[in-house]
């Protein structure tokens, strides 16, 4: 299995190509197809892909994040956990992530990370 950094880089590269495909055939069907996403060398679990029409309210944010006041364009929100595993302490660990893949993509990518 790839290391977490390499697996995440592979996932971003694959999803970039998936986003380009989604731009060719935009819409809910392309988004729903991402629910079957498999990344070679990485274990994905808890994969969800939801199509949000233009103007839909953004996902719930933590209380310290100010609310978004601009309407969002149509997009697919992909969420999953990368490399879910059980630690030495018996607790479950994994790298959770979410991507917003717009219906009309300009080819640019913004990556933000945090705890």
Explain this structure.
Helices cover 23% and strands 28% of the residues. The chain is α+β, with helices and mostly antiparallel strands and 115 residues long. Strands 1-2-3 form a three-stranded antiparallel beta sheet. A hairpin with a 5-residue loop joins strand 2 and strand 3.
Task: Note poorly predicted spans.
Answer: 19-25
Total count of strands? 3
The coarse overall form would be: globular
Number of domains: 1
Q: Name the strands of the widest sheet in spatial order.
A: 1-2-3
Gap between N and C termini, in Å?
A: 24 Å
Largest sheet features: 3 strands, antiparallel
Order of helices and strands: HHEEE
Q: Which structural class do the helices and strands define?
A: alpha+beta
Helix content: 10-25%
Number of helices: 2
Let me know the average pLDDT: 78
Radius of gyration over all CA atoms, rounded = 15 Å
Strand content is 25-35%
